[in-house]
Input
Amino acid sequence: MNFPFKKFFRVALVAGGFILTGCSSLEPWVKPYERQNLADPIMAFSRAPASDNYLHHVHQAREGARGAEGSAGGGCGCN
Amino acid sequence: MRKEVPEVVVAVISPSKHENNWDTKFQGNVTGWFATLILFWVSGFVNAAVLPEDRTDALYHSFEGGGVKIQGPSILVRKSIKDTVSVSANYYIDNVSSASIDVVTTASAYTERRVEKSVGIDYLRDKTIMSLSYAQSDENDFAARSAHFNVSQDFFGDLTTLSLGYSQGWDTVGKRGEPDFAEETNRRHLRLGLSQILTKDSILGASFETITDEGFLNNPYRSVRYRDPGGQNGYSFQPEFYPSTRTSDAFAVRGMYYLPYRASVKLELKTFTDTWGIEADTAEIAYVHPYGDEWIFDAKIRSYSQNNADFYSDLFDRIDQQNFRARDKEMSTFTSQTIGLGVSYEKELPDWETLNKFVVHLSVDHIRFDFDNFRDLTVDAPAGTEPLYSFSANVIRFYVSIFY
Output
């Protein structure tokens, strides 16, 4: 059976249209000049990457869980 | 105005000139929207995302508890080249002295050194950051190589950052005293992350990571115990044996809120599950309180709990009771509770030409582990009646960071 490309494309276009039209009515609600508090260093998820990565390693080596630490690295796999 | 600002936030302080024309140019035109969507991913906007700051961190780290002491330095150097590329290098050492419960009951205490080196490069193009890094870790009986790729994109007026990452790892497991012993493990990570500014005082992050291992996943030194009327105290040991594949999923949400009096709270929740039957939950709450312009104090409480792997048992009924068997305490049912305190002193250096500021930081985490089905075999008692094991550990991190 051939894949119904035309039908798929039509549905995708309509669905995409709905999504994008919906997005267009939603505008960023926090303006750039309102972000002073967010720019404060005390609001950083990680203030010191080397130190935080070390703590992730401590947890990974002693716990069964791993992953989703929120940092860019992937660990060394060296438990 | 402070020079140090998080990526997500800086992104929005410099709005894109393209954003101004966004609505009027394409509104009501589906084809136009589609073309714009493609443009958005290919080109992004202008000058939103920023590269990590140029900095050097010299960290001393120490873990001590449960008969184990691991300490050493870590040096991280990061420098940007022009405004679009940032390179980094990290040199990390673990000096290990181990007489842990596993070691003293089934093997001999040992000392060893692990050295990890990594290099990375980040490339900024408009609102997209692409990162590539490579790491290698070596100790006398274990070698790990890994490559990592991440891409992140700011959009929606820079309120949202989406990131995607992939890592591949190659491990070689050896065994002391057996030079011919060499087993391979491959590892793949896939990461998804979303960061969303909710209000002018709050930000929310979510991340998902799936990891697949394939190969030799045992610890070659560890053993399981089984009931043996002929053994001392009624038990004996045999080597553990793990499945050769494992896939895990972890999902975390974390939020930060800026309090009315310049302080912040962070809440993090994480859930984990894997194909070995381990399910784990983590909750952490942290409070950050600055004092003046130069001091930052922080405190946190973290709670972790997991159940045991399907093939874990503290005491099997007989030898070779089942194909897969483990008695690693990390595979058992346990909880851990952490209390952490930290203090930072940071000083701007406006009169220096080459340096912007420095930070000195000290933090101490106290962790208590309580095991629900892992028993303390250092106590002389009939098999299965030993007290449950528990221990405490202190984690110290002391670092000096220089920003330039």
